[in-house]
Design brief:
This protein is mainly α and 72 residues long. The chain has one domain (4-71). The protein has helices spanning 4-8, 16-26, 34-47, 56-71. The longest helix has 16 residues, at 56-71. The chain is globular and about 35 Å long.
Length: 72
């Protein structure tokens, strides 16, 4: 869980990988959380560029989250 001050800091535009990292930390935060908002925007931009087979996006995201959790 993050502190309220963490949620008020705008991280700016995130890459897809940075968005996954931010979302892994801020997933449980309220919708007003700036890192969560930036992460959602970046993930939409990065991972929804082309039409995908249903479930393929979930598989890609699951793999990224798995990679991140191995680093923690």
């Amino acid at each position: 869980m993050t502190g309220v001050d963490d949620c008020r800091v705008d991280p700016g535009v995130l890459t897809g990988d940075d968005a996954v990292r931010a979302m892994s930390v801020h997933y449980g935060c309220p919708p007003q959380c700036l890192p969560r908002c930036r992460a959602e925007d970046a993930m939409t931009r990065e991972f929804v560029k082309v039409a995908r087979i249903p479930g393929e996006w979930d598989a890609d995201l699951a793999e990224k989250v798995r990679q991140i959790t191995e680093l923690l």
